């Protein structure tokens, strides 16, 4: 602040000196000691500016106190003028001595080599400078201080609002994610319970796969995003459970483009979509069924399809559908994470069955999953 104050006032003094000297040269007037007068006049503001600036920040004028604070700053302006006159009395070219008809120190008589206190000239300097000092110097300083203070407070409010919005979004995402975890857990436990009476070994394998799913889910519990390859790994464990239930009736084809394996997607994205295809597609038919999971990149977008060859949607695609918990939460998570940069559609497939189509920004993860996660038998 001090360096900036001296730098600004020195620049103003230099500019004023250059302007006056150029004017004198053009008009052929005798060149006086312009630099000494201008620098003595203007540089004496430099030590006072940081105090005025800090005072304005400490006592800002606001709508609720503008009368009281205006009077306070008027008094401060008078003190500012008094300080300026006092500093000018300590510098050369700060006082015009009528007796010797020359500029000199106000407090030092260079001819008599003695100190003096010219009260009448100092009072005259005060009253001749008070209006200019308050309106032309002090007022601009406090205006600049108010502008900077307002800008900083606005930035701080925006930062706090952004942080609060981020915290609310994170909380909402975690809440949505927490809705998914018990959803698939309860569905799986229900399947195990139904299988216990007919296939104990199968139920045991399902319990083992479920424990693997829970372990993986806990490992990624604090993460909203994960690599698509990691999601495929989690999906494969879930499919182990469904394969126990449906056996040869269930075939899953996973076709993930190699460049998409590192793409970041919401954790627990694919499992509820595949579960929905199993429940409403494969389980509704006695013949073998197939589910396809496809991922492709297109420019800066990631596109995902989950298709089944079941009976398709009973409701026409153009009619609003009432999604179950898994699809609804998935749609809300995508909307919260990506806003208008995503799309979520459930529709009848072109070759029969139902299809869920997802589009989201392509964001690359730092860790690469294993390439053997691309296909599942």
Describe this structure in words.
This protein is an alpha+beta fold and 377 residues long. The chain folds into two domains: 2-162, no CATH class; 196-373, 2-Layer Sandwich (Heat Shock Protein 90). It has helices spanning 2-27, 34-42, 49-58, 66-88, 119-195, 200-219, 228-246, 270-280, 325-338; strands at residues 95-97, 102-104, 108-109, 114-115, 225-227, 250-256, 264-266, 289-298, 301-308, 343-348, 354-361. The strands form four sheets. It has a five-stranded mixed beta sheet, covered by helices on one side. A hairpin with a 5-residue loop joins strand 10 and strand 11 (354-361). Helix 1 runs antiparallel to helix 2, helix 5 packs antiparallel against helix 6 (200-219) and helix 7 (228-246) runs parallel beside helix 8. The longest helix is centred in the middle third of the chain and has 77 residues, at 119-195. It is rod-shaped, with a radius of gyration of 39 Å. The protein starts with a helix and ends in a 16-residue tail after the last strand.
């Amino acid at each position: 602040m001090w360096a900036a104050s001296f730098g600004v006032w020195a620049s103003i003094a230099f500019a004023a000196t250059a302007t006056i000297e150029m004017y004198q040269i053009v008009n052929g007037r005798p060149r006086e000691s312009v630099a000494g007068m201008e620098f003595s006049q203007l540089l004496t503001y430099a030590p006072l500016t940081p105090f005025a600036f800090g005072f304005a920040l400490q006592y800002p004028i606001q709508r609720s106190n503008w009368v009281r604070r205006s009077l306070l700053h008027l008094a401060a302006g008078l003190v500012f003028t008094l300080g300026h006159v006092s500093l000018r009395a300590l510098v050369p070219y700060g006082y015009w001595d009528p007796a010797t008809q020359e500029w000199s120190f106000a407090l030092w008589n260079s001819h008599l080599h003695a100190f003096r206190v010219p009260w009448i000239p100092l009072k005259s300097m005060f009253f001749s400078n008070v209006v200019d000092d308050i309106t032309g110097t002090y007022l601009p300083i406090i205006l600049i201080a108010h502008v900077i203070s307002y800008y900083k407070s606005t930035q701080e409010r925006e930062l706090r609002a952004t942080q609060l919005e981020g915290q609310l979004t994170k909380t909402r995402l975690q809440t949505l994610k927490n809705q998914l975890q018990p959803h698939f857990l309860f569905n799986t436990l229900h399947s195990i319970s139904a299988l216990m009476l007919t296939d104990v070994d199968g139920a045991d394998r399902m319990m083992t796969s479920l424990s693997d799913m829970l372990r993986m889910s806990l490992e990624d519990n604090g993460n909203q995003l994960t690599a698509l390859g990691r999601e495929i790994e989690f999906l494969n464990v879930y499919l182990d459970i469904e394969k126990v239930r449906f056996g040869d009736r269930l075939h899953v084809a996973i076709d993930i483009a190699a460049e998409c394996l590192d793409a970041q997607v919401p954790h627990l994205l694919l499992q509820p979509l595949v579960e929905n295809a199993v429940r409403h597609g494969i389980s509704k038919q006695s013949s073998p069924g197939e589910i396809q999971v496809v991922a492709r990149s297109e420019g800066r977008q990631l596109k995902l399809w989950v298709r089944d060859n079941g009976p398709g949607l009973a409701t026409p695609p153009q009619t609003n559908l009432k999604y179950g918990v898994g699809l609804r939460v998935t749609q809300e998570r995508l909307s919260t994470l990506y806003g208008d940069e995503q799309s979520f559609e459930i529709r009848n497939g072109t070759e029969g069955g139902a299809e869920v189509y997802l589009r989201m920004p392509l964001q690359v993860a730092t860790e690469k999953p294993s390439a053997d996660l691309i296909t599942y038998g």
